[in-house]
Amino acid sequence: MAVDFSILKDRSVLSLLSARSISLLGNAMAPVALAFTILQMPGGSATDLGLVLTARLAAQVVFVLIGGVIADRLPKHRVMVGADIVAGLAQATVATLVIAEHATPLSLAFLAVVSGAAAAVFEPASRSVMPQLISRDLLQAANALLQLSMRGGSIIGAAIAGVLVALIGSGPTLAVDAASFLVSAVLLSGLRLRSTAPGASGPSLLVQLRDGWREFIARQWVWGMVSQLCFVNVLLAGGFYVLGPVVAKESLGGAPAWGVVLTAQALGFVVGSTMASRVHARYPLRLAALLTMGFPLPLLLLAVHAPVAAIAVLAFAAGACIDVYEVLLDTALQQHVPEEMLARVMSYESVGSFAFVPLGLAIAGPVSASVGTGQTLTGAALLIMIAGPVVLLLPSVRGLRGEEPTKADTPEVPAEVHRPSPVRQESGDADIPGAQ
């Protein structure tokens, strides 16, 4: 289960991983600081907090497809640097308003739109840049290390967020997040890509969006896996992130118990990322599809109000399954989608995977009120488990092989980089599968 860290001898890969880890460390602090900022305002309410969070999410959904086009037209590291600078400036403005006590829900919502748009532009570039940094036979190991670094940053950031808010306040904590974006931009500016983008000139935005869509739907295995993930995410989001805390409050001991479950899941993410670099699957999507059957395991025990320790064990297992899945899927996309189309295809994958997550969050409560929380959790878990085998009915999902690169199609590795023994293939700031 050991990770091959020799890949980090490539300075560009090391810079990318460092940038993502630092940025996500800051991102994990922001929700805590933002929540306390809004709720401590005169008249501040959960509705105001929801407005700000919804504004950011909406901007991400609206702009992610445009981000895919931009990332396929311009050098990806420059796209990421520009997005980080915009996000850093937006968060610095938020921090300034909070420190000066001039922040309002409306101003924070506007700035959330700006930062959400920046995140949307950043994501397709960050997910599609790895093939321009490292040879194809090392993609899975590199993606696993990237996932591990991102999870590590998120876990550390979440762990220290409350302490920082208590010690220095919400405004300075948000300033730390702003600084993390700028540090990330500096690190990303030094990436050395193996190939260059075609440039800003070329077909119009709409034409490139259309071409990306055609590439997306032309590959049965891509839209098949995305359809499966969309279905899974709707049920998992409502079951775990809405009904899970309800069960914890009513039967498990409240917030401390739920914290144990989430911590176990986070540890599972780390272990899954570590395992993913050593997974050798001749048919990676067969394994990825079956791994989704592990995602809802904790829902089954939540449904029967099992002991916290038992739920935590299955949350750990689910977290490991999620991160191995993400590494397998991302690597499959990077290996089998043309590089000039990769960012656009990944942006459509992001939209497809998450477009209906708000629906799952919205209907979980009403459905559980109608048929019962236990029945809702059990039903969601069983439906998710069925989705894995169903997608394997598609021949292209069953038949996709992990690419065995030849000397002719493997990009040259810089002389200063030690090439580890070849490993094969595959790979999301959310804990819902597919996010990155």
Summarize the structure.
This protein has helices spanning 11-39, 46-73, 76-99, 105-128, 139-168, 170-188, 205-218, 220-252, 255-276, 284-291, 297-303, 308-336, 342-354, 357-371, 373-391, 395-399. The chain is mainly α.
CATH class of the largest domain: Mainly Alpha
Largest sheet: none
Compute the number of helices: 16
Q: What structural class results from the helix and strand content?
A: mainly alpha
Cα separation of the termini: 23 Å
The helix content is over 70%
Give the tally of structural domains: 2
Low-confidence segments: 405-430
Strand percentage: under 5%
Mean pLDDT metric: 82
Shape: globular
Strands, count: 0
Element-by-element helix/strand order: HHHHHHHHHHHHHHHH
CATH architecture of the largest domain: Up-down Bundle
CATH topology description of the largest domain: Growth Hormone, Chain: A
Radius of gyration, whole Å: 21 Å
Explain what the structure shows:
This protein has two domains: about 1-135 and about 150-190, Growth Hormone, Chain: A; about 205-400 and about 420-435, Growth Hormone, Chain: A (Up-down Bundle), CATH 1.20.1250. The chain is about 75% helix and about 0% strand. It contains 16 helices and no strands. The chain has helices at about 10-40, 45-75, 75-100, 105-130, 140-170, 170-190, 205-220, 220-250, 255-275, 285-290, 295-305, 310-335, 340-355, 355-370, 375-390, 395-400. The longest helix has about 35 residues, at about 220-250. The radius of gyration is 21 Å and the shape is globular.
